[in-house]
Amino acid sequence: MRATTVIGVLRNGKAALGSDGQMTYGNTILKHSTTKIRKMHDGKIIVGFAGATADALTLLERFEEKLQAYGGRLDRSAVELAKEWRMDKYLRRLEAMLAVVSREKALIISGTGDVIEPEDGIVAIGSGSMYALSAARALLKHTNCDAKTIVEESLNIAGEICIYTNTNIQIQEIV
Questions:
Q1: Which site from 28, 36, 60, 128 is most exposed, i.e. has the minimal number of CB atoms within 10 Å?
Q2: Closest CA to 164 of 62, 27, 11, 42
Q3: pTM confidence score
């Protein structure tokens, strides 16, 4: 997935998820302040997306339905979305990924049926994800920064390296 960076971090019972604001079409920047993250389930879950915007919005809507259907149980909702996404004739063509955090869990959900819970509590998707992930791991290991600060600094570092990521950052936090 190109054209964005989304990263989420869990630390000390808090969760933060952020993204840059750049929207690109090919090698052209169309917008600098796109919103790619949102809170769900009464603010207990934050979801971010990378990929085609219309596809991602469709998936966000489906994920919210799953959260309601399964009483906000993040694991179950994620697995059910991934199953539907992979098996449904229409949904399996959608090109996007989701990064999801709650205070207890961080997950990546993909259209190939993957629901991944990284061991270090860091989720990252999009073109600048590996830059942001590397920065977040270093900050998590070598500082006492809180989750929100780690997300912010990681996105700034990715924005300095990745041409598809800018430093117009939006962050949501669950405390």
A1: 28
A2: 27
A3: 0.93
Binding site for Na(+): what residues are annotated? 159, 162, 165
Q: Are strands 28-31 and 23-25 parallel, antiparallel or unpaired?
A: antiparallel
Q: For residue range 91-128, what is the model confidence (pLDDT) as tens digits?
A: 777 788 999 999 999 999 987 889 999 999 999 999 99
Residue 92: CATH number of its domain: 3.60.20.10
pLDDT at position 44 is: 96
Residues classed as catalytic: 4
| 1 lies in some domain | no
The CA distance from 46 to 4, in Å, is: 17
38 close to 46: Cβ distance less than 8 angstroms:
yes
Range of the domain at 11: 6-174
Cβ contact 71:77 at 8 Å: no
| 167 found inside a domain | yes
Q: How many domains does the chain contain in total? A: 1
